[in-house]
Amino acid sequence: MRTQVVIIGSGPSGLLLGQLLYRAGIDNIVLDRSSKEHILGRIRAGVLEEGMVGLMEQAGAAARMQRENLPHDGFDLIFDDEVHRIDLFGLTGGKRVHVYGQTEITQDLMDAREAEGLQSFYEASDVRPHDFDGSRPYVTFEHDGQDHRIECDFVAGCDGFHGICRQVVPDGAMETFEKVYPFGWLGLLSDVPPVHDELIYANHRRGFALCSMRSKTRSRYYVQCLASERAEDWTADAFWDELRRRLPEETAERVTTGPALEMSIAPLRSVVSEPMRFGRLFLAGDAAHIVPPTGAKGLNLAASDVHYLLEGLRDYYADGSEAGIDAYSQRALHRIWNAERFSWWMTSVTHRFPDMSGFDRHIQRAEFSQLVHSKAASTVLAENYVGLPY
Ligand code: FAD
Ligand code: DHB
């Protein structure tokens, strides 16, 4: 087999890149080690920046999103029961975010790919890129008991943090910067109406809580937990009790509880690997970086990587220019570090750290107070939350 770009990974970054390349006239094949059902069963991000929405439109996969997404013009920040609304729309000159789940994004992109009859291999095992340091890379894998080899011009490593593409980078060619946080998020998804029509981020003595949603009838809630805890040790009832304890009384009383459709724990960490290009292999999305989820940047960063990579590959195929692919890593990393800073900061001011001193707690309170009293401070938060320009 031969194609122009082999995309390893069928998460949002791989599927979005595949669709955008196709619309730019560039052939591609998507490979994933998991089944479609498994990929669609993972409950992850829920808040989209306008940049991501624009890319879905460019990919020709935005019709359902345009009908079903919930635009959000602000969110509540709560510190020890004191509520402050961040007016995203007002502070950013009319920008907002859109609530639409990663599962739906992935489904829409898979449907678009299928409608165009583009080639994908799910449940592909032993996927491996070769010779990407030369001019004729290829990818091997096994599928349905048969060995396959695809010759290509480029390989896009969109296979997440535990994928193969990070692993095949030669020793010493990549530097990784990492910060691990001493807690995780326990998430619960339930078919109950959200407690509020906007998101609520709460810093409470007992730990962080987030009230989010997927639709007007489906809620997504999180509570900070120990990194060592296991979701199996929690019941939905225990979750609801803990969530309500971390919210102001009048909000807690309005929480509608129900059975859990899903409950899982996500560890929190910040990771950046540099550079993101190794000859004809590019890393994009979680394959190159992880942010703690506070501020919902993970999926949106994957989208901006895809945007820069698309521009580079489009120029290469249009007129042979390598300027765009040469600049890919640097352009993407500039935005990544800004989002890393924001996600780290938002995590730092909203969570309860196990070794926190009285001094640290007062500093958190002062940060909150500055957001309440300074329009400049709130504007910085709002500009980052809606997404920095590409
Ligand atoms: P992924 O979605 O991870 O996709 C990678 C794909 O590559 C997968 O389908 C995988 O099966 C495939 N793959 C892996 N290895 C191989 C291999 N060797 N061969 C072939 N295929 C392979 N972000 C937010 O903004 N908000 C959130 O609330 C949030 N919650 C999260 C919860 C969890 C548990 C996790 C892990 C992430 C969460 N994120 C969240 C981050 C966000 O979901 C990711 O940033 C986003 O999924 C990145 O997309 P991606 O396509 O780069 O990677
Ligand atoms: C969600 C996750 C986040 O990390 C966030 O900041 C907002 C919303 C969510 O899963 O809905």
UniProtKB/TrEMBL annotation:
It comes from the Bacteria. InterPro entries: FAD-bd, FAD/NAD-bd_sf, HB_mOase, RIFMO-like. GO terms for molecular function: 4-hydroxybenzoate 3-monooxygenase activity; FAD binding. Its EC number is 1.14.13.2. The keyword Cell wall biogenesis/degradation does not apply. Residues 2-343 form the FAD-binding domain. GO terms for biological process: benzoate catabolic process. Keywords: FAD, Flavoprotein, Oxidoreductase. NCBIfam families: pbenz_hydroxyl, PRK08243.1. This is 4-hydroxybenzoate 3-monooxygenase. It comes from Hoeflea prorocentri. The lineage of its organism: Bacteria, Pseudomonadati, Pseudomonadota, Alphaproteobacteria, Hyphomicrobiales.
